[in-house]
Specification:
The protein is mostly beta strands and 331 residues long. The chain contains 3 helices and 28 strands. The protein is elongated, with a radius of gyration of 29 Å.
Length: 331
């Protein structure tokens, strides 16, 4: 009996299709992600392109009371719990009550004590939304929310007096009638009417360029503190200045932050009075102490900038490079 060429071709095609389907099913089965209880142990299985299928023992888990958790959330996590602990992707998450842990909305979860944000983070063990009562959270638009006068951006917060006027601009920027906000940073002094966003962390108004919640350093003239003529200088008429040589060595923020600020002391000698002091986070682990001072002619802002030196080991005590700067405006 003679078999036609078309029959052979169709048979070969069906075999290839079946082989492809079986291959896909094999990959899907082998790429399992989740928990597996075996005897008195719990394992977490995962897969990645580099090492393929992985299986590791979950530490500090009670296998008898362990169970997987599922939530109506598009989070890319595998949750589990035992009688005492919560687990995410096989990692024990500290200080969360597993028995009251539940999903709220927009990657925000809660237990009986606190709220947690798992949308984006640096450390999954530090996702608590600090200082916020989970019963008070009101969602605005991802990733923005509020609780009382506390504005929430992801897992970070900032207190805003006119929070009811807050309008989100995009995922990184928002505004009220009196403030521009970048993530959880208020751009103090920024002109709301003329402010324009230039990137996720940069913007500008009619006066200055801003970066990471503060005026860009390029907007300040670099000056020597040691040769500056403080006695004869009218600060109300002075352009923005940064003094680059006030400090000769790295310092500890904890030890240094309560010490007098050199520029503040100079202005007090010229009859300026302190009206406000703010302690701000800036660009990752860096810090700013911002002091507002006034006299009968103008208002000046003195900022002591603590720039974190990422080239040093994190356990280094003296790890901040410090500069001081000033800018003033007429009353």
């Amino acid at each position: 009996m003679r078999v036609s060429g078309n029959y052979n071709r169709h048979s070969a095609m069906k075999i290839k299709q079946l082989t492809f389907i079986l291959l896909i099913l094999s990959i899907l089965i082998s790429c399992r992600r989740g928990y597996k209880v075996e005897a008195d142990k719990v394992y977490y299985e995962s897969w990645n392109e580099g090492s393929g299928q992985n299986k590791r023992l979950v530490e500090q888990v009670d296998a008898k009371t362990f169970k997987e958790l599922s939530f109506d959330c598009d989070c890319d996590f595998e949750f589990g719990k035992d009688k005492d602990h919560l687990f995410i992707d096989g990692e024990l998450i500290k200080n969360i009550d597993p028995n009251t842990f539940q999903f709220i909305r927009n990657y925000v979860f809660r237990d009986k004590h606190s709220a947690y944000f798992f949308g984006f983070y640096n450390n999954i063990q530090d996702c608590v939304i600090k200082g916020v009562n989970p019963d008070k959270i009101e969602f605005i638009k991802y990733p923005w929310a509020k609780a009382g006068n506390i504005l929430i951006h992801g897992g970070d917060t900032v207190t805003i007096a006119d929070i009811n006027d807050f309008i989100p601009i995009d995922d990184d920027w928002g505004k009220t009638k009196s403030h521009i906000i970048n993530n959880n940073q208020i751009l103090y002094g920024a002109d709301v009417k003329t402010f324009k966003i230039t990137s996720s962390f940069q913007g500008k108004d009619k006066n200055y360029n801003y970066e990471f919640g503060a005026i860009n350093e390029d907007d300040f003239k670099k000056t020597s503190y040691k040769t500056f003529d403080f006695a004869n200088k009218d600060f109300c008429q002075t352009e923005p200045i940064v003094f680059v040589d006030v400090y000769d060595s790295l310092v500890s923020y904890t030890d240094d932050s309560d010490k007098p600020i050199e520029l503040v002391e100079k202005l007090k000698e010229k009859n300026f009075a302190i009206s406000n002091i703010r302690y701000l986070n800036w660009a990752g682990a860096s810090k700013i102490i911002q002091v507002s001072l006034t006299n009968n002619k103008c208002k000046c802002i003195v900022e002591k900038l603590y720039r974190y030196d990422y080239g040093k080991p994190p356990e280094t005590k003296n790890i901040f490079k410090v500069t001081e700067r000033i800018y003033c405006e007429p009353k």
